[in-house]
Amino acid sequence: MDYQKTYTYPSTLNQTTPETPAPTPYTPQQTMPQYAPSQPYPTPPATLQPTTQQLVPQPVPPINFQEQSYIENILRLNKGKVGTFYFTYTDSNEWRDRVYKGVIEAAGRDHLIISDPKTGKRYLFQMIYFVWAEFDEEIQYQYPYR
Q1: Which entry of 15, 27, 59, 61 is 20 to 30 Å from 41 by CA?
Q2: 4 contacts: CB under 8 Å, gap ≥ 6
């Protein structure tokens, strides 16, 4: 391909009127600066001097990590427990409100996985439809004190 060639717009765009002048042809050499490989890169100003001061590492305080009190974290704390889970599907008349009973397998920010203890079948639910949960036993809950 010849990069030295002069390019112009298609002929349908070259229509001129008294108000608009004709477009000028594009030549790559006009807009691209030319650099010679023998030219050195610019050097930093001479006023910059390396420092001899040593940096002393500062001790880092220990991080007290506790999960925040989000629904998925509470469900995760109760993994393995049987619960009743209520979901509302607002866009469906047939599946408007549904109730599921099962064992919590996993929970994430946007999903809940429960399994049916009778069949072992696992179900994946979107948390956006989750309303509440009931448990027949005490649940684990650790409020994140700050």
Answers
A1: 27
A2: 28, 29
Which residues in the chain show pLDDT less than 50? 1, 3, 7, 9
Closest CA to 24 of 12, 37, 7: 7
Instruction: List, for residues 58-78, the tens digit of each pLDDT value.
Output: 776 666 555 566 899 999 999
Q: Do residues 107 and 75 make contact, with C-beta atoms less than 8 angstroms apart?
A: yes
Per the listing, tokens 């399994």 go with: 115
Distance (Å, whole) CA 34 – CA 89: 64
**Cβ neighbours for 124, distance < 8 A, ≥ 6 positions apart:** 111, 112, 113
pTM: 0.53
Cα-flanking dihedrals φ and ψ of residue 71, to 5°? -55, -45
Predicted pLDDT of residue 63: 60
The span from the CA of 141 to the CA of 77, in Å, is: 7
